[in-house]
Amino acid sequence: MIESQIIERGSARLAIPGGSALEAVVLARSTLGDRWRHVSLTWVDERCVPFADPESNRGTAARSGLFEATASGDPKPDSGHGPARVLPLFCDGESPSASIARVEQGLTSGFADVLDVVLLGMGADGHVASLFPGRATAPRGRVVHVGDSPKPPADRISLTRAFLATARHVILVAAGASKRDALRRLLAGDEALPAHGLEGLVVVTDLGDIESGGG
After folding, report:
1. Terminal Cα-to-Cα distance of the chain (whole angstroms)
2. Which of 18, 128, 190, 199 would be 185's cystine partner, CB 3.0–4.6 Å?
3. How many Å apart are CA 180 and CA 77, to the nearest integer?
4. Per CATH, domain 2-205 is 1.10.1160.10
5. pLDDT at residue 141, rounded to an integer
6. CA–CA dist 65, 67 (Å, integer)
7. What is the enclosing helix (H) or strand (E) of 6?
8. CA distances from 13 to 39, 106, 114, 169 (A)
9. Cβ proximity of 31 and 135 under 8 Å
10. Nearest to residue 142, comparing CAs of 127, 121, 122, 164?
């Protein structure tokens, strides 16, 4: 899907997760080769921790070879092998309000206010990005500070469901038996789950007893 976007429009605006689903991005980056230079990269969510912390999605992505970064996590000048641009959701030392303002500006200037491809992981409770089921109201806007995540660390920055829904292609990776109940709920149309109703949703799973497909 990333490659088809690059072929169709010359570039691809991609949002990625952390966790085990990141392995799919590393594989895609290897497959794309030099075409990775045409990708604008951001994240679906980020923990408000330093770049060097193992919990940092951005740090893990850099250590996995998706982009080159300085010790503090700033993307290095384009070496010819990295993505066209990198938009972190959180930078070391930022306040949540500063992160949101910077990301909002970056989504407009570098992404033209939309995404092409979104890759999501899903928790056993059915959460995607840092959007958790059972919240009273869905967050507004494109970027939100989540200060009370039930999954530690509690302090996070996340793209909202409304902005994830701008993508033409949404791939949800749900691997492992712990995801079975949530995945069944999603495929059955449970509106309480944040991924419900995302247009173009494709589920990738290793659970052979669950039928996957478009949403």
Report:
1. 16
2. 190
3. 42
4. no
5. 86
6. 5
7. helix 2-9
8. 6, 12, 8, 11
9. no
10. 164
Return the C-alpha torsion angle 124, 127, 132, 133, nearest 10.
-70
Task: Please give the Cα distance from 44 to 29 (Å, whole number).
Answer: 17
Locate 23 and state its tokens.
Answer: 């392995």
- Local confidence pLDDT in tens for the 215 residues of the chain: 788 888 788 899 999 999 888 999 999 999 999 999 999 999 999 999 999 999 999 999 999 999 988 877 877 776 667 899 999 999 999 999 999 999 999 999 999 999 999 999 999 999 999 999 977 556 678 999 999 999 899 999 999 999 999 999 999 999 899 999 999 999 999 999 999 999 889 999 988 767 655 44
Task: Determine the Cα–Cα distance for residues 139 and 104; give it in Å rounded to an integer.
Answer: 14
From CA 172, how far away is CA 213, in angstroms rounded? 10
Place of tokens 């990141």: 22
Q: Which residue type, as a one-letter code, is found at position 129? A: A
